[in-house]
Q: What sequence folds into this?
């Protein structure tokens, strides 16, 4: 039975959760989940800088928002963390190890992203095939949660991926990401295509499952005002650089919301945050 | 089995396998075999083989080869299609080509590197699992075809050796096509089918290219008459595959995924 929790209350204010510990800096984790040191990524034979000098640490159990305009470097950062690419310079470590071609780290990281043609090869698969795949490939896969979410999002079990509309495809991505229950889960604007009701359902389910099974979740989004209640901390990127990385309490001082701080920093307004 | 029970069973099996080394590849292989429906593919092969044997035994082969020979001769005066020595071996070669095509189609269409990476495999694990699946399918095709041929064959040594050699050529081209797909992350069966058709074309054009390659097939036949054709061909394929596979896996591992 899934407990009904007050999912409208910001997670960082709920005592006893890892997110709250992260928000106040008292989580006591020793090995960060993610550690980037002067990370750089260049595309097109070095002509385009996707990331420049990114250095940050994300502690275990954080529910971290990754914010930035289009082209800011959010997806590039996530793809490096997930081991899909190698950095041009600097280093990235996940649970203390290089994630590139690492059979110990790969099963512990789920990267769920939105690009439609990434799944061209699986258009013939049905929902049940992909749930089967999750059960085979993911050590922490929760089949009960996957079936619960299928019913919640009203997603048919026998529907082929190629026949799904945008909302169903987004729901399937969310379900796979949540049911994988990996120690590190990366959601890259995964809910695009969902309406507001579905997004609320997704965030409620994410919070419920996160409280029951704490883990590190990185969540990139443009819907900042809608999603900021999730985050214990946030990273703000712009033009491949980190503008700010702090717990949400520090980023939302002086009466500002996280969105206000994000817009102000990105537009280079005179924004102060922190205590 | 109810859907929920099926998922719970799959999860329990996967977790039981996950503690042992190589379990990621084993789990991937089990899943590939299930979704690509290897069993139904082999049954389809049997149907294709029987159909082609029926067609050829009704005289279709003679009509087809004579038409092809006339067409080719108009462009290449010296060209001759080697006639099928017996009604059985020629359609079997065609059937093997079709089977390889079916196998490649069945395996390449649903499988993608990006999808596997997003489900927690590394590139090496993805490539090795796919290669194992391809080898199992090729082996299954081989066994199925031989089981069909054996009860009906009345080959003499030269014809059976020729059949075995060309059979391994066909499987070899199937594997080459498959490895290219792994290396280049292609998701479409035409790539593999090109190699399969290439194997058949190699057989049909044998009189032409054997002159250029000092009669490779004839040389092979000389050896085959004295030694076991199957072992020789198998050794050749294993050696070539043993060189190609590490190279292609290494190439695959360097490939970044654009998200």
A:
């Amino acid at each position: 039975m899934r407990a009904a929790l007050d999912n409208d209350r910001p997670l960082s204010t709920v005592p006893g959760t890892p997110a709250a510990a992260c928000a106040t800096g008292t989580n006591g984790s020793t090995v960060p989940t993610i550690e980037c040191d002067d990370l750089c990524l260049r595309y097109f034979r070095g002509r385009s800088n996707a990331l420049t000098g990114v250095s940050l640490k994300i502690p275990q159990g954080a529910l971290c928002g990754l914010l930035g305009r289009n082209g800011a470097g959010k997806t590039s950062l996530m793809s490096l963390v997930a081991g899909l690419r190698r950095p041009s310079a600097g280093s990235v470590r996940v649970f203390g190890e290089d994630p590139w071609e690492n059979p110990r780290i790969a099963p512990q990281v789920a990267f769920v992203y939105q690009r439609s043609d990434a799944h061209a090869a699986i258009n013939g698969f049905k929902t049940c095939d992909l749930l089967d795949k999750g059960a085979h490939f993911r050590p922490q896969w929760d089949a009960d949660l996957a079936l619960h979410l299928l019913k919640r999002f009203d997603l048919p079990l026998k529907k082929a991926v190629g026949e799904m509309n945008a909302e169903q495809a987004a729901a399937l991505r969310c379900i796979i990401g949540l049911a994988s229950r990996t120690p590190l889960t990366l959601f890259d604007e995964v809910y695009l295509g969902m309406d507001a009701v579905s997004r609320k359902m997704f965030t409620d389910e994410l919070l419920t499952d996160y409280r029951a099974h704490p883990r590190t979740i990185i969540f990139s989004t443009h819907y900042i005002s809608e999603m900021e209640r999730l985050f214990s901390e946030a990273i703000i990127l712009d033009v491949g650089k980190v503008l700010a990385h702090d717990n949400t309490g520090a980023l939302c001082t002086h009466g500002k919301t996280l969105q206000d701080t994000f817009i102000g920093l990105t537009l280079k307004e005179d924004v102060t945050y922190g205590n | 089995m109810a859907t929920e029970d099926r998922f719970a069973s799959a999860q329990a099996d996967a977790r039981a396998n996950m503690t042992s080394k190589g379990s990621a590849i084993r789990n991937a292989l089990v899943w590939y075999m299930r979704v690509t429906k290897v069993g139904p593919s082999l049954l389809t092969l049997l149907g294709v083989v029987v159909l082609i044997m029926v067609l050829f035994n009704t005289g279709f082969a003679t009509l087809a080869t004579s038409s092809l020979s006339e067409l080719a001769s108009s462009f290449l005066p010296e060209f001759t299609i080697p006639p099928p020595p017996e009604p059985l071996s020629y359609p079997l070669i065609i059937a093997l080509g079709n089977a390889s095509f079916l196998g490649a189609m069945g395996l390449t269409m649903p499988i993608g590197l990006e999808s596997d990476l997003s489900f927690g495999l590394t590139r090496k694990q993805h490539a090795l699992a796919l290669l194992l699946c391809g080898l199992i399918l090729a082996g299954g095709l081989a066994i199925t075809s031989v089981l069909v041929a054996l009860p009906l064959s009345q080959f003499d040594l030269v014809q059976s050796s020729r059949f075995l050699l060309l059979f391994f050529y066909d499987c070899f081209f199937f594997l080459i096509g498959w490895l290219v797909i792994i290396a280049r992350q292609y998701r479409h069966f035409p790539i593999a089918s090109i190699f399969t058709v290439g194997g058949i074309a190699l057989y049909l054009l044998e009189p032409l290219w054997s002159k250029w390659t000092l009669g490779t097939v004839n040389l092979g036949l000389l050896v085959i008459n004295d030694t076991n054709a199957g072992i020789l061909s198998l050794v050749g394929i294993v050696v070539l595959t043993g060189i190609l596979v590490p190279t292609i896996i290494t190439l695959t591992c360097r490939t970044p995924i654009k998200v």
Chain A touches chain B through 46 residues (CB under 8 Å). Residues 1-8, 16-29 of chain A have pLDDT under 50 and may be disordered. DSSP finds nine helices and nine strands in chain A.
